[in-house]
Write a structure and sequence with these properties.
Length: about 400
């Protein structure tokens, strides 16, 4: 019954809301793992669309952004419309600072005509997300609402804003470590925060399903809360923070020109505007549904962490999905995914039809563990327990 309720809560959040207003996967690692060329066609789960645009900057043939939540695709559609229709300063105000003056008029005149019917209907109701400088876009959506609540806690309860600002302004890792350990770590991780972060309702707001939480509880000493505490220690005390736009945007509600996703940098904006954005398309569907309904050949699959949920609740759907993936893949295809757990050995147990016989994925996938061992510790997000890069064995 508890598992059923947790699943219902997660599905309610994801089917009725814009969940992600920014991607929470580090594309710096992806670029090295994918090695995109002009011959590549990429399938990526859309999320907030930041990484789809990041891949487009590598000039592949096409980027198919697929998501079952049409609101996530509407966000990427809005970004693509803004790239095509706005100048850089307007684009930066909208997606760098999270608010744009006269956004309703600009939307009606320039952005709305560039989008399809569903995205238009969504932003007709929600373009107000970009209106208020005191509550910018990055404090909207379910993940943004949680970030806003944590900022209220930091500002009004802990009264620790000056130390957060000092942490973001630090120029060296030792300076970061001194500020975090001395002034923030123990104050932030109070008993109420540890309790809240251990609730499935809270985790659903940032897209962590119950199945993923169980994997972390199983694999990590101290469970999900200790895992998150250790992740934050790594981010704030062990890795350079000055270019970590993932955490900055949720600590402040905006990016800076020096610390932002690649698509928000002016030189990259112009590359996208001058044609690269045309390689991006959005598709509201499951991965399996998209692959079965479209005659496409995909050389790079970026599957994020959605298999964690399927592995517990719908293993047969996971097998069907991988059968569709293999049907549309090339001999040189690469597969990239992440997991909240430390071990995702369930992937190797997936049974598929391959070259006329039934096999387990573990028999036909060749993992690049050396590359993963090199890249995963450098992950600026640092909230995933594991990272996988694989190709089809010869």
């Amino acid at each position: 019954m508890i598992d059923w309720l947790n699943t219902k809560m997660f599905n309610f959040v994801h089917r009725n809301n814009l969940v992600y207003n920014t991607c929470w996967e580090d594309p710096r690692l992806d670029r090295q793992a994918l090695e995109l060329t002009s011959d590549d066609d990429v399938l990526v789960i859309t999320s907030a669309g930041c990484n789809a645009l990041d891949y487009a900057l590598q000039a592949p043939r096409h980027v198919y952004a697929v998501d079952m939540n049409p609101r996530q695709n509407a966000l990427l559609d809005l970004k693509c419309a803004a790239i095509r229709s706005l100048d850089f300063e307007q684009f930066w105000e909208m997606f760098g600072r999270g608010h744009l003056q006269s956004v309703r008029q600009i939307y009606r005149r320039k952005l709305r005509p560039e989008m399809g019917d569903w995205s238009r209907s969504y932003w007709d109701r929600h373009i107000r997300f970009f209106e208020n400088p005191n509550r910018p876009f990055y404090f909207r959506g379910t993940s943004g609402n949680l970030a806003r609540a944590l900022n209220v806690y930091i500002n009004r309860v802990l009264r620790a804003r000056k130390w957060c600002d000092a942490l973001l302004a630090a120029q060296t890792v030792p300076e970061q470590r001194e500020i975090y350990v001395r002034h923030l770590r123990d104050r932030f991780w109070s008993r109420p925060v540890r309790f809240a972060m251990g609730r499935n309702t809270t985790l659903s707001l940032v897209g962590v399903p119950h199945a993923q939480r169980l994997q972390v509880d199983r694999d990590y000493q101290g469970g999900i809360v200790q895992f998150m505490q250790d992740c934050m220690t790594a981010v704030f005390a062990e890795l350079p923070l000055k270019d970590n736009y993932f955490w900055r945007v949720y600590m402040t509600g905006s990016y800076t020109r020096e610390c932002c996703p690649e698509y928000l940098k002016e030189e990259n904006f112009w590359q996208l505007k001058n044609g690269l954005v045309n390689a991006v398309s959005t598709h509201t569907n499951s991965v399996q549904g998209f692959l079965e309904e479209n005659e496409v050949s995909i050389s790079r699959f970026v599957l994020l962490d959605h298999m964690d949920w399927l592995s517990t609740h719908s293993f047969s759907l996971l097998e069907s999905e991988w059968s569709a993936i293999l049907q549309r893949s090339r001999p040189t295809s690469r597969f990239l995914w992440r997991s909240g757990g430390l071990r995702t050995d369930f992937v190797n147990e997936v049974r598929v039809q391959y070259k006329g016989r039934q096999v387990k994925l573990g028999e036909i996938l060749q993992y690049n563990q050396e590359l993963v061992d090199q890249l995963h510790p450098l992950d600026r997000v640092h909230t995933y327990g594991s990272f996988f890069v694989a190709r089809l064995a010869a």
